Hints:
Elements: H1 2-32, E1 69-77, E2 82-90, E3 95-101, E4 111-118, E5 129-135, E6 140-145, E7 150-158, E8 164-172, E9 175-179
Amino acid sequence: MRLKRALILALAAAAALAACAREETKAAQQAATPAAPQVAAPAEPQPVNGWIERPEPEGLHAVRPAPWRMDEIDIPVPANGGDLEFKLGMRQGDVVVYSIRYPGLEHPGLFVTEFHGHTEKNAEGIGDLMFYSKTGGAEEHGALKAPFDGVHGWYLKNDSDAAITVQLRLAGFYEVLGVN
């Protein structure tokens, strides 16, 4: 019994020494690491007449030289692999709100729609291309804030047996470049 008790005490003492050594090592590492300077958080603005005025984040509000516009455009897309691209010209930061519909399309899987944008190509023949959404003939409603100056629009391909007239409703800041 004495031997067992002595063994337990020895193990407890070894565990305590190991814990102390870990704490000393941790304290030495913390002492060797320079402390980050303490930066005071900005003071919370005080309400005035029940309102706290917040600063406007950059890019939240934009003023444009021309008024916004609105268009409803019917785009006929021929059957059996007929394809075309409907294009808008937009400057970086311009916004367009859109709805695209495919009345009369019986099988949405037989239609390809790619909403995308691209820059002009440089002297080496290289430009930037970005896809915003790729869908079949499923209705879509959304908004785009142009990430760069360039052409933004929809590639449309109709693999069905019937011609389809795509209905596109637009509002915002853009120039209609038309069908290509």
